[in-house]
Write a structure and sequence with these properties.
alpha/beta, 2-enoyl-CoA Hydratase, Chain A, domain 1, 2 domains, three-stranded mixed β-sheet, 9 strands
């Protein structure tokens, strides 16, 4: 068993990693299950936000070094790496391109390719035990799973280079200070679920247009951004959800 999808009544699709192995090491089968879970979640009309978490003490210790060792001894390491890369790349492409907002909860080790899963999410919650481990260099590999590209998009290329080249672990507070975590909470799973549920009830138009607008600064000029903003704000304002929410809010304030 690896990633499995549970759809909550709140509209949150919960992808939970439960590999059955200590540390939830990443391998081709696990990442293939992530791809399947993402495909199922995005195909469902009752899923409005994606929540990713893991069972156990650690979110993921990264690559399966035991499998690497066995493949090196048997002379099959090239085939194992090729299979991993194909499945890892497919999964992370699907996660980055997912139409749904993505919230993640992590604890313990978040190592190697698991950093890409973390950084690909829109809101990232860590427990106090969280330790981000950019471990690639320690085993003689460059970053994989798209982690270099995804982290650079999240926190900037200069800081990403420094983190991977130094290879030093980042505890929860250090991860928050550089922007890889947005929140640190003793009950990270509950905090992440609360954020996901808040996003899930935004309304489809507001949610989809917000994602489009908030992704735009990386690839547009200010003028292009403002034109896009005009388009999506007027579209959202014409949606009945906007009118209903405004009227409900004003009534709660006692002005109507």
């Amino acid at each position: 068993m690896a990633f499995s999808l549970e759809v909550r009544d709140s509209g949150v699709g919960h992808l939970r990693l439960a590999s059955g192995r200590a540390g939830n090491p990443l391998d081709a089968a696990l990442m293939s299950s992530l791809s399947r879970g993402l495909a199922e979640a995005t195909s469902r009309q009752d899923v409005n936000c994606l929540l990713i978490s893991a069972e156990g003490k650690h979110f993921s210790v990264g690559g399966d070094l035991t499998a690497f060792s066995a493949a090196i001894e048997s002379g099959n390491i090239a085939e194992l790496i090729e299979g991993n890369l194909q499945n890892f790349h497919a999964a992370i492409t699907a996660l980055v391109g997912c139409r749904l907002p993505r919230v993640v909860s992590v604890r313990g080790a978040v190592a190697g390719g698991a950093l890409a899963i973390l950084a690909a999410c829109d809101y990232r919650v860590g427990a106090p035990s969280t330790m981000l481990v950019p471990a690639f260099g320690a085993i003689g590999l460059p970053p994989d799973t798209g982690a270099g590209w995804i982290m650079a998009r999240a926190i900037g290329a200069d800081l990403t280079r420094a983190i991977f080249l130094a290879g030093d672990p980042l505890d929860a507070e250090a991860a928050r200070s550089v922007g890889l975590l947005h929140s640190v909470d003793a009950d990270a799973d509950a905090k992440a679920l609360a954020v996901a549920e808040k996003i899930a009830v935004m309304g489809e138009v507001a949610r989809s247009t917000s994602l489009r607008l908030l992704d735009a600064p990386e690839r547009t000029s200010l003028g292009e951004y403002l034109r896009m903003e005009h388009e999506v704000v007027t579209r959202a304002a014409a949606d009945r959800v906007f009118a209903n929410r405004v009227m409900e809010f004003v009534k709660r304030q006692g002005t109507l």
